[in-house]
Amino acid sequence: MPPCPSTFPLFPPSEHLNTIYLSRHGESLNNLYGRIGGDKGLSERGQKYAKELSKFVNSLKLPGLKVWTTQYRRTQQTAEHIEAPKHIEAALGEICAGDHDDMTYEEIAEKFPVEFALRDADKLCYRYPNGESYLDVVHRIKPILQTIKEEDNLLIISHQATLRCLLTMILGYPSQDLPYLKVPLHTVIKLSFSDEGVLVDYHRLPVECVDTHRVKPINCEITRRLEDACVTVPFHL
Fold first, then answer.
1. Does 94 qualify as catalytic in the annotation?
2. What is the mean pLDDT of residues 168-193?
3. b/e string for 6-23 if b means 16 or more Cβ within 10 A?
4. Confidence check: pLDDT of 5 > 60
5. What φ, ψ does residue 220 adopt, rounded to 5°?
6. The pLDDT of residue 7
7. Does the annotation mark 130 as catalytic?
8. Of 158, 195, 164, which Cα lies nearest the Cα of 13?
9. Do residues 227 and 28 touch, judged by C-beta distance below 8 A?
């Protein structure tokens, strides 16, 4: 595997003002129970977010609005109430967790403690067994990145890891921060492009949800105790 880059290039802004909107899917059943990946549908609160998102977006009356979702049903369910043409973009799908798909962090830490520690030590470059790394997702998105940046009134409904990659590339954030960028559920991120740069606005919609953000633990050694490995796992049912 080649060395991890220290930064990603900041792509030049478009000449004319244009705006795109980003959102994670509504809270899913897997979010609620602390499971990563999978293809479960929305929780009750996630379904409520889908309705609130449609109200928010429809109220903007954006001319030529387009909605991109992914191949996962939680994103498509989140978009179902929005009045706009919809396109499934597989390149924006969630990071593939491979053999660890549909497991909780606690289950991974207990059954695959070495793998769990290796990911904590280098989350950017770590590749799930038979799955992807964050860098793999970056390379998956790159071919459509310029198209996204040139769109106007585009709403992308995607996933935490994928939106971390997309935001890092667009905004030129340091690559080492990518895996820990906060992209909360039930929040719309507005990106406005102009000659001066990119303006970012966060709009949290009024629907409760779990917090899926996991900070890097202090102890990333493969010999650590299970309790130390799971100390930063977010609360879930």
1. yes
2. 97
3. eebeebebbeeebbbbbb
4. no
5. -115, 15
6. 52
7. no
8. 195
9. no
Let me know the angle formed at the C-alpha of 12 by 11 and 16, rounded to the nearest 5 degrees: 130
* pLDDT tens figures, 106-153: 999 999 999 999 999 999 999 999 999 999 999 999 999 999 999 999
* Paired strand residues for 158: 24
Active-site position among 27, 89, 94, 151: 94
Tokens 């102009």 belong to residue? 194
159 is catalytic: yes
Active site residue 31: yes
Report residue 110 as tokens: 């207990």
* Active-site annotation holds for 87: no
DSSP string, 119-146: HHH-TTT---TTS--HHHHHHHHHHHHH
Whether 203 sits among the annotated catalytic residues: the reply is no
The tens digit of pLDDT for each residue in 24-39 reads 999 999 999 999 999 9
Predicted local confidence at residue 1, as pLDDT? 46
Catalytic residue among 24, 45, 186, 224: 24
